[in-house]
Amino acid sequence: MNDTRPMIEVRGARKFFGPLEVLKGIDFSVARGQIVAVIGPSGSGKSTLLRSINHLETLDGGEVWLDGVQVNQKLDRRSFERHINGVRQQMGMVFQHFNLFPHLSVAENITIAPIKLKGMAKAEARALALKMLDKVGLADKIDAFPARLSGGQKQRVAIARALAMQPKVMLFDEATSALDPELVDEVNLVMKQLASEHMTMVIVTHEMRFAAEVADRVIFMADGAVVEEGSPAELFRNPKQERTRSFLKKFL
Ligand code: ADP
Ligand code: MG
Question: By CB count within 10 A, which of 31, 42, 92, 128 is most buried?
Fold first, then answer.
């Protein structure tokens, strides 16, 4: 049955940067519609793991699967390029630093991929952009340029842009870390709304309260390994590992 197959599956993921082993055999899977929060100290490999899922980093060992298709499969160069472009269209990724094109309007930022990669007609792409902007509460900014937006608005545009590709999963890497504190909630609210619509999401975050509210499962990483995982209630209220306890103490 398609519905019981994990949406994302990572098996034995290993990654080195030179002599440094950054991922030491990570296993984890995300069910369809599930929200997984990944927490852990800076440098523990969270971003590398997320980037490995859509092959922005190439693993040295292990496998990544998206909805039953192996992402990091062996193919000749040209076939792999075609394959990975197809895979990436199915994964929306949102970074700490928005990465909007500054010389393009909000509409152009959102429509460029649907037009170029999916061959969508301009008018149809603009209608889609408007729909996605409406979702993130920014329909009135469709013709604005990024420089005129607040950080929270930029990040919401980045989310709308990812959603316009109608991805199967959304990956968030500290989407609110670069924001002024008063702008964090508006972005978190959009993520919560996506969660309520059963979008499959992996959320790397330093905000324990948000993780506890939004996630079905929390994964604690340290030193390139999964130390502990569980429901938010288990992991936050009753951590089993000393390493998890001492990490969480810093957030009390
Ligand atoms: P986190 O997101 O949990 O803070 P990262 O995945 O960014 O951790 O980094 C894990 C480790 O890998 C860190 O020690 C970091 O310095 C190192 N690292 C990350 N990217 C690179 C890179 N491109 N080259 C060399 N080292 C890297
Ligand atoms: Mg990181």
Answer: 92
